[in-house]
Specification:
It is a single chain. This protein is α+β, with helices and mostly antiparallel strands and 108 residues long. The chain has a single domain (14-98), classed as Nuclear Transport Factor 2, Chain: A, CATH 3.10.450. Helix content is 24%, strand content 42%. It contains three helices and six strands. It has helices at residues 8-13, 22-37, 102-105, and strands spanning 15-16, 19-20, 41-50, 53-63, 72-80, 86-96. The protein has a four-stranded antiparallel β-sheet with strand order 3-4-5-6. Strands 1-2 form a two-stranded antiparallel sheet. A hairpin with an 8-residue loop joins β4 (53-63) and β5 (72-80). The chain is elongated.
Length: 108
């Protein structure tokens, strides 16, 4: 359980003394990533607090094709500072939407 101080400043900003709440970090990360890349986040597949801030992996549609199962998807690792500001991102995987991700299913 996380103890949050109830100050006027933390209530106004939506942040606790220790920083933003995880849901706020996710929302802000998605918005910042979309603004920087022009890619809309379809899903967040991992999310964790680290010593340096926050780290998440997001799935995006990189190239729409017909049929949709042939569209190109990508996974990006997104890093944020303790306040939830995006500090970097990198593509870690690219694949067709209709194909199983062998890297995660244990296939070859």
């Amino acid at each position: 359980m996380v103890k949050r101080e109830n100050t006027a400043e933390s209530q106004d900003s939506g942040e606790s003394v220790s920083g933003p709440r995880p849901l706020e970090v996710l929302r802000e990360a998605r918005a910042q990533f979309a603004e920087l890349t022009g890619l809309a986040v379809e899903s967040v597949t991992s999310f964790e607090q680290t010593e340096d801030g926050w780290s998440l992996e997001v799935e995006v549609l990189e190239l729409a094709r017909v049929p949709d199962t042939m569209s190109l998807m990508a996974s990006y690792r997104v890093e944020l500072d303790p306040r939830g500001q995006l500090t970097g991102y990198r593509r870690v995987h690219r694949y067709e939407r209709g194909r199983a991700d062998a890297r995660r299913t244990g296939g070859h």
